[in-house]
Write a structure and sequence with these properties.
Elements (H helix, E strand, L loop, with lengths): L12 E4 L6 H7 L4 H4 L8 E2 L7 E2 L4 E4 L5 E4 L1 H7 L6 E2 L1 H12 L7 E3 L6 E3 H6 L12 H8 L22 E4 L5 E4 L7 H4 L8
Parallel strand pairs: 6-9
Antiparallel strand pairs: 1-4, 2-3, 4-5, 7-8, 9-10
The structure holds zinc ion.
Zinc ion binds next to loops.
Length: about 200
């Protein structure tokens, strides 16, 4: 009897050589001391013995496998083969974080649109006469476009389901065990940040 199998997914660690700004970090990643090499370093290419003949240039990814081997990949090759491992927040963790920042009333939890920076809570949506359920998932800028503009709110229609997905979008476990996409929480206002721990409970 034949059965169906698939490759086990495997994880690597990787760093993109952006340029001089993260050069030292890249050297540390492959186990070398940047300062030992500074004299002969050519910033148009990174050619290191540890890379087994591979030459990296700015923009390339250095990919480290479980056995420690490091391979250089072009961005297109890397993006085709790997996706970032994003951890899913449990619903309880997400609620704890919202409560920590903004208190127990979830309608007051503020979310930041990763596309434009607009910050809004469910109660802000409700104040505009629309459902507050969109607050973690869509930009309030999309609502105000229909209303003809609100002071201090940027025009923006970004929604978590839009592609390309912005890296700041987080995954939260839904009530049914599914994964929901959500905007990151906004920074807590200084006043609520100053509440002593445990005050909300
Ligand atoms: Zn926005």
């Amino acid at each position: 009897m034949s059965e169906r199998f698939r490759n086990r997914p495997f994880e690597v660690t990787a760093i993109q050589w952006v340029g001089e700004s993260n050069c030292a970090e890249v050297f540390a990643f492959v186990g070398l001391n940047h300062d030992d090499w500074a004299d002969e370093l050519d910033h148009s290419k990174l050619h290191l013995p540890v890379l087994e003949g591979d030459t990296a240039v700015h923009g390339d990814w250095l990919v480290k496998y479980a056995d420690g081997a490091v391979k250089v990949m072009k961005p297109s090759e890397f993006e085709a083969g790997f996706e970032k491992v994003s951890s899913i927040l449990s619903n309880a963790e997400w609620r704890a974080e919202g409560t920590r920042r903004f208190g127990k009333d979830a309608a007051q939890w503020k979310f930041r649109c990763p596309a434009c920076g607009n910050v809004a809570s469910a109660s802000d949506f409700i104040a505009l006469g629309v459902s507050g359920h969109s607050a973690p998932h869509g930009c309030i800028g999309g609502v105000q476009v229909e209303l003809g503009g609100l002071p201090g709110v940027k025009h923006c229609k970004y929604h978590v389901s839009d592609l390309p997905r912005l890296p700041e979008v987080i995954k939260v476990e839904g009530a049914a065990g599914d994964a929901l996409l959500a905007f990151p929480f906004a920074e807590a206002a200084p006043a609520s940040a100053a509440l002593p721990l445990g005050e909300a409970s």
